[in-house]
Fold this sequence. Notes:
The chain is about 50% helix and about 10% strand. The chain is mainly alpha-helical and about 120 residues long. It starts with a helix and ends with a helix. Glyceraldehyde-3-phosphate binds near residues 47, 85, 86, 87 and 109.
Amino acid sequence: MGESLEQREQDLTFQVIETQLKEGLFHLSNEEFAQVVIAYEPVWAIGTGKTATSAQAQEVHAFIREQIARHYDAQAALDTTLLYGGSANPSNARELFSQADVDGGLIGGASLKSRDFTDIVKSF
Ligand SMILES: O=C[C@H](O)COP(=O)(O)O
């Protein structure tokens, strides 16, 4: 899930994420939802070289977890794996993936270079 650049600039990020969660996932039963892994990928960051700041990633991930707790329960929120994707690279990986609510990453372009991918893995 994730917002477009236009949506972010219009301050609609949280609204977009909330709608995506409600329409895309929150019809699932507790048992079904327990199988879900969520990736936050701001559209403007995918393959562009523009990465969300660690603060931007963290605040959206925290929001997603809050929404899960509200719709399911606190344990479901804690148990759900939340990944960040969007121009993650060896230079920004450590800060991005050390955020409290960022559990891992979806690595696109950087995974095509084995050295970069290895460096990202080592940053966890
Ligand atoms: O699956 C990969 C994600 O869409 C992120 O791709 P990226 O790291 O090339 O921006």
